[in-house]
TrEMBL record:
<dbReference type="InterPro" id="IPR023485">
    <property type="entry name" value="Ptyr_pPase"/>
</dbReference>
<dbReference type="Pfam" id="PF01451">
    <property type="entry name" value="LMWPc"/>
</dbReference>
<feature type="domain" description="Phosphotyrosine protein phosphatase I">
    <location>
        <begin position="81"/>
        <end position="184"/>
    </location>
</feature>
<protein>
    <recommendedName>
        <fullName>Phosphotyrosine protein phosphatase I domain-containing protein</fullName>
    </recommendedName>
</protein>
<dbReference type="InterPro" id="IPR036196">
    <property type="entry name" value="Ptyr_pPase_sf"/>
</dbReference>
């Protein structure tokens, strides 16, 4: 029912240039002529109040608070999700690629817009062709599209706190780097008090691992959260993935490269499944159609 509502109420897809790495109001830079501190602060306060933009179901809110998960704001009828890795080489790309498969399966590819970057990535550089080919061969075995491994590196920018609705760190070290950047940005004279706002949209991928039960993760058929191609990959390593906090980085030069890759893949799948179900559960019951005036 939720995914049917999302499919019907989600506005037409914008082009990639407008959707990705852009501000909610379409600004290219914060000091542009149309920039307004008051206007953006209204966005922040509306998000904090969750006015007509998130589920108010008591059970959902209680569980969200217990698990300390990020806020969700559906006021723009889509969620722009950013995965952040160390070097934007493996984990963030796999996370985006595998969630891309799951959102398509759930009919939410227009509602959940995905991107990835790295805190130490080389801006605008490309992956070594031999390394890219090696990673791509392993990723495609899981059904991940080649586009996730052939694009340029993207380095995390502090402005990404304004661009994206949910920011997902792949491990604790990356999360600490993000929080350090958030504190530095919030110390600015123009952005006092924004720290809580930045924190409210940031989490580790593993924070979502406990949102779904084993039964929800392994369900089959048209109501399944994951397509069989993904749930089948998750099932063998589900128990071990439950205990993972930091998504492991595989060493492809190691004799245990395939085992490490599978461990990373299962941890990502579990976190992605929880994240996707969390976004579905956060959809407000009284959300008007996107074309209706406010």
């Amino acid at each position: 029912l939720v995914q049917a509502e999302l499919f019907q109420k989600t506005p037409p897809r914008l082009n990639d240039k407008l959707r990705c790495r852009s501000y909610p109001e379409g600004r290219d830079q914060r000091d542009g002529a149309d920039w307004s501190i008051r206007k953006f602060w209204n966005v922040v306060t509306d998000r904090e109040a969750q006015k007509k933009s998130c589920s108010l179901d008591p059970a959902f809110l209680r569980r969200k608070q217990q698990m300390r998960l990020p806020d969700v704001d559906w006021s723009r009828y889509n969620q722009q999700v950013l995965f952040v890795d160390r070097h934007d080489t493996v984990r963030a790309r796999m996370a985006a690629g595998m969630l891309d498969i799951a959102t398509n399966w759930n009919g939410m590819d227009l509602a959940v817009v995905l991107d990835r970057c790295g805190v130490d990535a080389e801006p605008s550089g490309y992956m070594d062709p031999s390394r890219a080919a090696s990673l791509l061969s392993m990723a495609q075995a899981s059904g991940v599209s080649s586009r996730h491994f052939t694009r340029q590196f993207q380095c995390f920018e502090v402005d990404d706190f304004y661009r994206y609705d949910v920011i997902i760190a792949l491990d604790t070290g990356v999360l600490e780097r993000l929080m350090s950047a958030a504190e530095e940005e919030a110390a600015s004279a123009l952005t006092p008090g924004y720290l809580q706002y930045f924190q409210s949209k940031t989490a580790r991928l593993s924070d979502f691992s406990g949102w779904c039960s084993d039964a929800e993760l392994t369900r089959e058929g048209g109501t399944a959260l994951l397509p069989r191609s993904l749930s089948g990959q998750l099932a063998p390593g589900l128990a071990e993935a439950r205990g993972v906090v930091d998504i492991p980085r595989p060493d492809l030069s190691s004799p245990e490269a395939y085992a490490q890759w599978d461990a990373m893949k299962c941890s990502i799948l579990l976190g992605n499944a929880g994240l996707l179900q969390y976004l579905k559960d956060s959809w407000p019951k009284d959300m008007p159609h996107w074309s209706e005036p406010n």
